[in-house]
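User: Good morning. I'm curious how zinc ion would be positioned relative to this chain. Could you predict the structure with it bound?
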Amino acid sequence: MRTQRQVVDYALQRRALLAEVYSGRVGTMEVCDADPYLLRAAKFHGQPSNVTCPVCRKETLTHVSWVYGDELKHAAGSARTVEELARMATLFEEFSVYVVEVCRTCSWNHLVQSYVLGTRGLRSGKPRRRTAAE
Ligand SMILES: [Zn+2]
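Assistant: Good morning! Here's the predicted structure, ligand included:
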């Protein structure tokens, strides 16, 4: 998305936690604890990924994007589809997105990435090349 900025990747933390799980120092019960709210969000607002669940290896993970920010009012803390995020990025100046991966089979869940979206990103930062679609 054009206004995406302040991207933080949580791959290192994820790898460290999985190493603990594989070694048995952390039980799968502790990490496969997605609550019903997250599982429901995955079902209705999730984006399928091509990453196989690192714990049960039975299915591919679903990414759920949660939005936060004062501007969002009642929408803050809700899960949004990619299409909704694209629309919101044109309506609000600035809000944060937290992408969580979740396995709908074993309930493994972990933060994947966070970033900021919104029209404020259009004024600052590097100029970007426009595509025909824009
Ligand atoms: Zn799983």
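The mean pLDDT is 92. The first strand starts at residue 5 and ends at 9.
Let me know if you'd like a different ligand tried.
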